[in-house]
Amino acid sequence: MATVFLNGRFVDRASAVVSAFDAGYQHGVGLFETMTAVARRSGESPEVVGLWEHLERLKGSALSLGLASTLRTAALGEAVGRVVARAAEEHRDTERFRVRLTISGGDLNLLDRGGGGGVGHEPTLVIVAQPATVYPAEMYVRGARVVIADVRVNPLDPMAGHKTLNYWGRLRELQSAASKGAGEALVFQVTNHVSGGAVSNVFVVKGGVVRTPIARGEEAEVAGSVGAEVAGGEGSGRGAAVMPSPVLPGVTRRWVMESAGSMGLEVERRMLTIDDVLSSDEVFLTNSSWGVMPVVGVERHEVGGGAVGPVAADLVSRWGRVMSGE
């Protein structure tokens, strides 16, 4: 049974309804965050991993896309804590919960309000906590296979790189991957550069260097430090044009970059091609649900001889320690 918090109060599943005129239902106007809460020690309340990073990302997207003029992350964090605590009371034998926070445009006519975004209306807030999916340990030991998605993302789309409610295309790719016996689908940009998985960020390892696509918000920083040709712009150096990125700045992605650095590995953010993926020593995927997922095959191509590589294996172990509070 799920624990549901709707617009400031707890409701049962049958009462968890929103208006038929809600902008999230009518037009897909809204954002969401999916998080994991874990009770790291017996008797302790579950704690959401990376809570404030998730909420800051949500706030940045809400302000950037005009969903709200302000967003109080402290109040949202308190609400998430209340929901997780209630869920823990209702599921006393459960140590890990999936938490989804959704904010939609509310009962809003965007055309009547001139697309003002966030002024004069109340967004709809839903927080749901329920027992998390338990991924088999074997999957991390043996690795997963991925396929190439048909969908392409556009770096010039201002909605790309944000967790909007428009997730249908990605879910279809995930379903298609599952029907082929794969665990994920690699999504490419219209420029044929790697974006990530349908529901994950992607990393490749080559010669001890860990590489990941540049994420939204990192373009200018990367271009300024390594040259705009790496960031997808024209020319090089200061003042060069930089192509925007449609890649989500993942919370677990950031943890991996920091962890890889602490392991003494060089970490690069750059534009990646299919050749970079297929010629890599290792590939792995990250998100807040499964943590770090090693990839041993892309379509019919074997990665690393079809075995989980040492970098991914180390990160899987480190993520496990994070989740257990060690």
Characterize the structure shown.
The protein has 326 residues and is an alpha+beta fold. The protein has 2 domains: 3-131, 2-Layer Sandwich (D-amino Acid Aminotransferase, Chain A, domain 1); 137-324, D-amino Acid Aminotransferase, Chain A, domain 2 (Alpha-Beta Barrel), CATH 3.20.10. It has 10 helices and 15 strands. The protein has helices spanning 23-27, 51-65, 73-90, 137-142, 168-179, 219-226, 228-231, 251-262, 274-278, 310-324; strands at residues 3-6, 9-11, 30-38, 47-48, 96-104, 124-131, 144-153, 184-189, 194-197, 201-206, 209-212, 266-269, 282-287, 291-298, 301-302. Strand 14 (291-298) and strand 15 form a beta hairpin.
